[in-house]
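FIELD: query
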Amino acid sequence: MRRLRSLLLFSLLLLILLPTTVQSAPQQTSVLAYVWKDAVTLADQQGNPLETTGPSFTFGQGARLFWSANGETLYIARDDALYAAGAGGGAAVQLPGYYSRTLALPQDGEHLYYLETVSPQERENDPDHVSFPLREVVVTLMEGGTGRLAGYFGRYAANTSKADLTFAAMLYARDGGLLGPGRPNLWPTFGSNVLATCCFPDPGISLFDVGTGDTIDYDDTFIPGAAAVNNTRTYLAGPTTEGTLRIIDLITGGSRDYTIEIAGGLGTIERVAWSPDDTMLYFVSRYSPSNPINLNTQ
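FIELD: result
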């Protein structure tokens, strides 16, 4: 297992005070959700477990947890199924259909966008990369069918969706490192556009218009694997290949960079998180290891 030469946790006070994995509290409740003892658990603001809602996890199985915009519903997306649980408790219910772990709810809470990662499409005149269908489904009509095909998104390196891992690497991947940042992400903006990881394993995000199916390259230096959206879903923050932390305004499309001077450099920022009041950023930085984990893609 690769050794950490240093692990840095640093908080950045934002100059703007605007409006598995532990998730931030939903906007209208005081509940946290995380995986504890191999099952999804609801907890209070201090992190004390309140109730186990499920589902449970087996060795090496991961998931993505996210709240609806009104904070009333918790969604748990595993590779094999999508579950929903209420903020007030109760067992998580499996929703019909298959949606993958790459999915997101826009601000209206009425639709769900997801990449159909089981259906890679070869890109014309580009045998080394694939795209995935991006689909839209009405939340109230999630009855098992596939959503509306909005278009094909991304230029992902082929054969990067599976990996043969050693025991130590499997633990690291399951706990949110390694493969987690490599999985595509979706971030709905205010309107018909969706920002998304476009180019794994290369950095970069693109802007996809759900209405027209058009895609434009938005930022080729943004490293999306470590990025996080704030609790009000108005800002997306993440590192860049230029050595800065970049905050993207999901309303206006503008951005602002922060350069942090730390002796020895920042290393590789692996994870970014927002404070509950959206005024602070936290990040974990990892320096290059002398003995990296071997990862054999299939």
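FIELD: remark
The mean pLDDT is 79.
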